[in-house]
Specification:
heterodimer; A: alpha+beta; ten-stranded mixed sheet; six-stranded mixed β-barrel; 30 helices; 52% helix; 14% strand; B: alpha+beta; three-stranded antiparallel sheet; 5 helices; 3 strands; disordered N terminus
């Protein structure tokens, strides 16, 4: 309390520059006078009395100084002085200041932008109550080949009541429904959840109520909760929405509640929620319908390890309750903190690679600035020498220089924040939320997108931290360097105007530039590898022609469409579309190429000896309409494609791809052979009538496996994609498609309309984004490194003007002078490249999981990058070399 | 640093005690009393008294105002405030405890510790 009061007084005295020196001087004078009078009274002469009094009181100036220090906050005033001085100094050299701030703005801006992303997807706690306690409980099926983690309700019941580690659990899954009986049908993303789901997450209804146990019963009246967004969009945000009906796929539900604005469920995209038991009643008694995620909250005080141990024994119980006939393995239960599942692991890795890249850029920027500060340090040697000579302490000088660095880095951070904001804005307009794309095979529950990027305390701390760290990085070494050295020598030579060029300083600066070149090489190689991947990716033969094909999703509700009706509908729709003049071809296919896995099943061969199921080959299965191959431009290699006569009642037929033909019938003509499939009613076998080119279905990067096509006319499907090859601009096609669809069924929404090109873009999104970002960062790194090389060369030419003059006077040819500069440039570049190549060997390992058809140490990329950097360094030496050539020997000699 | 703090703290306590016993005094007066009581021990460098007085004033333990010295000249007089009185009481108590404790250890004999 007392200390605080004193601090406040000293602070105000410092801030308002209040001084009480006069008062104190008067007090001291009076003290002295009284002392003298006392001595005089004791019989001492006046002069002697004054001498003694002075000794007793002490040295006046020292007391004044001590008094002043007590009165005010010394360090604060020093800081103020330093800041004012630093500001003036920086204003005197606007060129240096501008370059420094710009360099920092780019380096820090890139860092902040990437950090904002990292913060959003990895660091910021999940927006639920005590998110650290939330876990996903996975059921690992006996068939370990599939990375299945989903539960069936009966198995969940077995596990739920036999553990003590969790205070609450909830099953949930994401579903899609069509909002019908309205003028504008719409496909809605939603979730089926147990009543415990919302309380478990700590989410409350912003309007109305949550699901109760009474809602979560098989016979309960159907109810739903809707998202804030749907409420605003469909119901105008009116409070009378409660109790209203909403019709999903023909089933009417009563709306009982609205969720908070930002909550979209764990799927990240839900607009509607339905209670578990009432919605999926049929699954409650199906032990092998593995369709649901299990969410759980750990009991307080139970660690992740303890939860793991608690569920370990559950697998045995589950297998005992529901024995697996094929018996290839045992079930197991595992727990994963929800936080670890929030994002696709590959994307997490990509985020760290980006962070590494921007850190390198910032490091190069700092090295560059350290270099510039050095150069300034030499120019200011005289100033420093004089300040040292008149009594400034070295510590004080170092502090002064550091204050300058700090001022620069603060300005740079402010500018960097601006850069980050602008680039994030730009990114969010160029790239909307990409939730669907980022849900990898292994997970990624959260919606990821530009909307998540926001400024919060973590980001601000990161910004301040960056400012301090950069200031330390580029300010410490030059300041330390300036603060040492012999006063006498520096002063003498500085005042003589005979500045020592500082061999030591130049060595250090050369070293810094070499470092910059090495770092730039690492960045360039990484960018080069990614660009090569992108190039190889774009050259990959997809097996079909994506251009001019518009696609949309078809999902016929089971309630109103029997398999036969679905088939009729699909044929009718395709006929209508094909009749339009702007349509070249139209077809149905149950899944689209390059967008993710399609169905897979085991194949059998009726003509061969039977084998156990586990040794049957797995093949991909795709249902298609007759014109599918034509519409997508898939080449028929042998035999024929499907035609309108391959329908129900006719002999069952299939078409296989080239890989299947090669793998399943080696050294044999597959045409006319028979194959049985575990799906689509083709178990008894069908005749192979054709072989088509391989199409990449899973991803552009994934090489095709054996695929089998089934004619949809022989095996009806109610859901899939429609492909329309267009003669006109594909955007003009959409209204026509909407109209044709509505003419057949008013309740069918037009869902997921995209061109195949767009789908291709999404499929290559990750590689594309990483390539572009790394290229931008590598470009920055290259630019910064070249500026560094240029600065060092220019300065060395300036310092060696006299030497060059003498050489020219002694008969050196322009060639020799040029060699002087180029020689240094190429030495720097060569050493930098060699060090960089070594560093690259370590750095590119992080990149391997993103590379496509290129090795991390691809010699072409390495050589090309090294050559580029080397040439660029020589180009950076061009101007300094020209200046060296322009040195007039007469002039230099005269100034001697 | 630590040593200086101790000395400063001790000096502050002495100053407060003198002000409590003798009432308002100017700097010279305080210095004289310290000299009288301590003999030569604190006679050097009377000027060091002033930073201590300033510190006490900033902490609110003493207050100062202009008055007239015995020679009819302007002098700055320091007096104890209510907060200073309380501070002095607490400090004196602590000091007494400390010295009593130290005393016991210093005068301890072998048989006491056995």
């Amino acid at each position: 309390m007392k200390a605080l009061r004193r601090f406040a007084r000293r602070l105000t005295a410092s801030v308002f520059r209040r001084r009480e020196d006069d008062r104190f001087r008067e007090e001291l004078a009076e003290h002295l006078r009284l002392l003298i009078e006392d001595h005089v009274r004791a019989g001492v002469s006046f002069d002697e009395a004054r001498r003694r009094a002075s000794i007793e009181l002490g040295v006046g100036d020292a007391i004044m100084e001590a008094h002043r220090d007590e009165q005010r906050l010394r360090w604060l005033e020093d800081l103020g002085t330093d800041l004012r001085y630093a500001f003036r100094t920086l204003r005197r050299t606007p060129g240096f200041t501008a370059v420094a701030i710009l360099t920092l703005a780019l380096g820090i801006g890139a860092n902040l932008a990437i950090f904002a992303l990292l913060n959003a997807v990895l660091i910021r706690p999940l927006p639920f109550r005590s998110p650290g306690e939330l876990m996903l409980v996975h059921l690992l099926g006996p068939d370990r080949e599939s990375s299945e983690v989903l539960w069936s309700y009966p198995k969940y019941e077995v596990a739920r009541d036999r553990q003590q580690a969790f205070i609450a659990t909830a099953l949930f899954t994401d579903r899609e429904w069509t909002l019908t009986k309205t003028t504008q049908p719409e496909r809605l993303q939603g979730e089926v959840v147990e009543a415990s789901y919302f309380p478990l997450l700590g989410i409350d209804a912003s309007l109305g109520r949550l699901f109760t146990a009474a809602d979560d019963r098989v016979e309960a009246p159907p109810v739903a909760m809707i998202s804030h967004g749907l409420w605003q969009r469909r119901f105008g945000g009116q409070t009378d929405v409660l109790g209203k009906m909403i019709v999903l796929d023909g089933a009417a539900l009563t709306i009982v509640g609205v969720t908070p604005a930002r909550f979209r469920g764990l799927s990240g995209q839900a607009d509607i929620w339905r209670p578990f038991k009432a919605t999926v009643a049929a699954d409650l008694t199906e032990p092998f319908s593995h369709s649901y995620f299990q969410l759980a909250r750990r009991r307080p005080g139970v660690s992740v390890g303890e939860a793991e141990a608690a569920v370990r024994g559950l697998g045995v119980l589950i297998d005992a309750a529901f024995p697996v006939t094929s018996g290839v393995g045992k079930s197991a239960v595992a727990v994963v903190p929800l936080n670890e599942e929030r994002i696709d692991p590959l994307l997490r890795r990509a985020a760290f690679v980006m962070l590494g890249a921007v850190c390198l850029v910032l490091l190069i920027a700092c090295v560059n600035l350290a270099n510039l500060t050095f150069a300034r340090g030499f120019a200011r040697q005289r100033e420093m020498a004089i300040r040292l000579a008149i009594g400034a302490s070295r510590q004080r000088l170092v502090r002064q220089l550091l204050t300058e660095s700090l001022l620069l880095s603060v300005a740079g951070t402010a500018a960097g924040a601006l850069v980050a904001m602008v680039s994030v804005q730009f990114a969010s307009s160029a790239m909307p939320d990409v939730n669907n794309l980022l849900r990898g095979e292994t997970g990624g529950l959260m919606r990821v997108g530009a909307s998540m990027l926001e400024v919060d305390a973590t980001l601000l701390i990161a910004a301040v931290g960056l400012a301090v760290v950069t200031a330390a990085l580029f300010g410490l070494i030059p300041a330390w360097q300036a603060g040492r050295g012999d006063v006498a020598i520096t002063t003498k030579s500085a005042i003589d105007g005979n500045l020592p060029t500082g061999a030591r300083g130049l060595t250090l600066r050369n070293g810094l530039v070499v470092g910059e070149v090495a770092l730039a090489l690492v960045m360039l190689v990484c960018a080069g590898l990614m660009l090569t991947s992108l190039m190889r990716l774009s050259r990959t033969d997809l097996g079909f022609h994506p251009d001019d094909v518009v696609t949309f999703q078809l999902a016929l509700p089971d309630e109103s469409y029997t398999p036969q009706r679905s088939l009729l509908f699909i044929e009718e729709l395709l006929t209508k579309l094909q009749a339009r003049s702007e349509v070249e071809a139209a077809a149905f296919g149950h899944c689209a190429p390059v967008t993710g896995p399609c169905n897979g099943t085991r194949a059998s061969f009726p003509e061969r000896a039977p084998v156990p199921p586990s040794r049957m080959p797995i093949v991909g299965v795709t249902w298609v309409s007759p014109d599918f191959f034509d519409t997508l431009g898939i080449r028929v290699v042998r035999g024929r494609g499907f035609n309108d006569h391959d329908r129900q009642g006719q002999p069952k037929v299939v078409v296989v791809n080239e890989t299947a033909a090669k793998q399943l019938w080696p050294n044999e003509d597959p045409i006319g052979r028979r194959i049985g499939l575990g799906q689509g009613g083709f178990r008894d076998g069908a005749e192979v009538i054709g072989v088509v080119a391989d199409v990449r279905y899973r991803a552009v990067e994934t090489p095709p496996g054996p695929d089998v096509y089934i004619p949809v006319l022989q095996s009806p499907r109610s859901a899939g994609m429609v492909f329309v090859r267009s003669r006109v601009a594909s955007s003009a096609l959409v209204p026509m498609i909407r109209q044709e669809l509505a003419s057949l069924d008013r309740d069918l929404p037009l869902i997921d309309v995209k061109t195949m090109d767009e789908r291709y873009g999404e499929a290559t999104w990750r590689t594309w984004t990483i390539s572009m970002l790394l290229s931008i960062f590598a470009g920055l790194a290259l630019l910064l490194a070249l500026v560094g090389v240029f600065a060092v060369l220019a300065q060395s030419v300036a310092q060696r003007t006299r030497e060059i003059g003498v050489r020219v006077a002694l008969g050196a040819a322009p060639r020799d002078i040029r060699r002087l500069v180029w020689g240094r440039a190429s030495t720097i570049a060569a050493v930098g490249v060699v060090i960089g190549l070594v560093a690259t060997w370590f750095a590119t390992r992080w990149l391997t999981s993103f590379l496509y058809e290129v090795e991390a140490n691809d010699p072409t990329v390495l050589l090309a990058t090294a050559a580029l950097l080397f040439t660029a360094a020589l180009v950076a030496g061009y101007l300094p070399a020209r200046r060296a050539l322009q040195v007039d020997p007469l002039q230099t000699m005269r100034s001697e | 640093m630590a040593k200086r703090d101790v000395q400063q703290g001790t000096l502050a306590l002495i100053v407060l005690k003198i002000l409590e016993v003798l009432g308002p005094l100017h700097g010279y007066g305080i210095a004289r009393r310290i000299e009288q009581i301590s003999g030569e021990l604190l006679a050097v460098n009377q000027g060091t008294l002033y930073p201590v007085l300033l510190k006490l004033e900033q902490e609110g333990a003493v207050a100062s105002e202009w008055g007239t010295s015995e020679n009819n000249r302007r002098a700055r007089f320091y007096r104890l405030t209510a907060a200073g009185r309380k501070y002095l009481r607490v400090q004196t108590q602590e000091w007494a405890q400390t010295t009593a404790l130290m005393d016991r250890f210093i005068t301890a004999k072998a048989e006491d510790l056995a």
